[in-house]
Predict the structure.
Amino acid sequence: FAELHAAVPGLPLASSRVLPGIVLRRDFAAYCPADGELQALLVTEPLRPALTAPGVEFVVNSEGQYQASLRWITKRTEALMKHLQSNNVKLLLSSAKQEEVVIYYAKLYGVSVVECLSSEEMALISEITGVSPYVPFGDNMDREITETAVVRFCQPLLLASKRCVHIGVISVCAFQPHCLILCGPVDGVNVQHAAALQEAFIMLQQLFKTVHQ
């Protein structure tokens, strides 16, 4: 329930509504408008390649070596984003904060990015879509990316003064996600209404469970 409702203070209760899909309460790190259905990729780590593996010391003997290393990172990042584009990936949903170089090439190759998603949001999207987070594959840039979810739409949403992301993920199960936009004059009223609605849903769950048995 926490991931499927958004409280918006400062608006009348009559402004409350139900939206299809999921509302992510953060703004795009990069937004590239796209029409129709698009492929989305879930990631849990920075996509900027590291110079060395964890626990391995990386020694730079000169400024020239350091600059060459940075150029290598930039080229690898661009190659990865280009690979995403060639696999029709138009949206990155990331629990990690992405580096500026990733955002730059995402914009260049038409890939929208939403970062810093919570583990609960990532788990919900993964459960709805049946897709596991994508793991970068090192030097193998030819492998087809199959860990993609289908999204009907991906667009900005303004809730009062807060910029959010509204996505319509296609579910692989019977559950079709909808998000409750709960409006009220102050936060306290919204908290009370949200708690009452959650208790009502729990009661309905118990009722239908009893009937089923």
